[in-house]
Amino acid sequence: MKKNLFLMLIIFIYGSCILFISCSNVQNNEKEYIEEEQGSISFDLKKPVKTIKLPAELVEISALSYYKNNLLAAVQDENGFIYLINYKTGKIIEKIKIENFGDFEGIEIIDSTAYMMKSDGTIYRVENFIDENRKIEKFNPGFNAKNDCEGLAYDAQNHELLIACKAKAALAGNIQKNEHLPDLKKYRAIYPLRTDNMQVNVKPKFLLEKNEYEKISKTGDFKPSAIAIHPKTGNVYIIASAGKLLVILDKNGNYLGHAQLKPEIFRQPEGICFSPDGKKIFIANEGKGKKGTILIFESK
Predict the structure, then answer these.
(1) CA-CA distance, 288 to 280, in Å (whole number)?
(2) Tell me: the pLDDT tens digits for 108-157?
(3) Cα–Cα–Cα angle for 96, 99, 103, nearest 5°?
(4) What's the total number of domains in the chain?
(5) Which residues, in sequence order, are bridge partners of residue 153?
(6) Beta bridge partners of 81
(7) Residue 32, Cβ neighbours under 10 Å: how many?
């Protein structure tokens, strides 16, 4: 890596829109733990404090969000239900039907509103999702199936959803042709979407250089499958199931660290969220022929 690599953190400022390219100081050091703030937050990824084995209907679990009162919300990639899971008991306490079928890959709960995302980037906003008189709206902000949208997180500070593309970084059509972007074929992209108007910013919030992150992956691959924001530090956690990596960026997109995810523990990590105090991290795994799981890790 060139010694001037820190210069590759490029900031494009047009109005209030900022694009961060994250590749500087990526370290090829294998870790099985993650730390923040000089070790004040630390999760040992070798030792989950609890493993929830999920029923057959969640073998394809694809996303997680913290709801409230020890409840996690989950979706899976074969139907349009929201599953509420008590992580203390490991039991599904409620199933809420939003859509019959669909490849749902993301969920975020904000107060009484659920946001669900399909792999083609279609967003479902479900107000009062727990009630029978819920209001369901669908939005297509500019993605398509080639983007393979798999990560959804909520940035409370900026009132926006973050959408991580597993595959193609460029948006559909020519809506980015005047945006002076780098060659997006070299990157994985994370886009911001305002929750007040459900409009996506066509400038990615973060661009992660594929070549740099593939170097630290044991499989030589890097395809984001889940994303979450730490509720206390604001740091961004990105899981790549293809690559078995967990990468941490700060809120400006600077690389902070990464952890290798052991395949025997993380069969196929597809969802991530935090408890409100940031002391627990929940990671969901698809079953791949076995039971799906939710792994719980607590900070030291």
Answers:
(1) 25
(2) 999 999 999 999 999 999 999 999 999 999 999 999 999 999 999 999 99
(3) 110
(4) 1
(5) 162
(6) 97
(7) 14
